[in-house]
Amino acid sequence: MRTKAILILFMQLCLITIVSAQSKKEIKKFKIKSVTISATDVNADGNEKTRNDSYQKFDSNGEVIEDVEYNKDGTFKKKESRKFNKNSDPIEEIIFDEKADVKKKTVTEYNVNNDKTVETIYDSKGKVLEKTMFVYNAKGEKTVEITSDEKGNTTKKMLYAYDKNSMKIERKTFDSKGTLISIRKYTYQY
After folding, report:
1. In the chain, how many domains are there?
2. Same structural domain for residues 133 and 92?
3. pLDDT tens profile 121-164
4. CA 164 to CA 84: how far, in whole Å?
5. Which of 100, 131, 147 represents a domain boundary (last residue)?
6. What is the pTM of this model?
7. Within its chain, how far is the Cα of 9 from the centroid?
8. Quick one: 50 and 93 in the same domain?
9. Could you tell me the residue range of the domain that residue 169 belongs to?
10. 186: left (phi over 0), alpha (psi -120 to 50) or beta
């Protein structure tokens, strides 16, 4: 009996790995709409208990538009839902808590070049918690990233520098008072 239980568990782990490893390309090709993963736990006495482990729902482009996780006892743990624009860029992500109430919502805006320009994070009541604005130069390189709080006060600012090949070479981070708090340098070997 114990050997049978171990064999069943091994087969389920293999199946979970195969399903989880499906690429967006395969999901789109086979028009997969969703994947439900269940898990069977076997106790020391050889008794089996099957429960929901996770669930994913896909759009026609193979993007995950709903992601649900369950606790070890099979009860609902959390859910994330996403919306994408025509370029498959995420434009909205909502995180739900264990009671299925909205915990956090992130809305992202893009410019005509598909560069992220604004990312706004809202709380469960729709109040702005944080807003980040992104600025790009004529080459499309992100040069400035400014994060502000719910009152519009700057909490963090990052400046980026690039080399002649458009490779990022430096990122400077400043705090809410404009004081430099870190410098990150990037060195490439060609």
Report:
1. 2
2. no
3. 999 999 999 999 999 999 999 999 999 999 999 999 999 999 99
4. 33
5. 100
6. 0.79
7. 29
8. yes
9. 115-190
10. beta
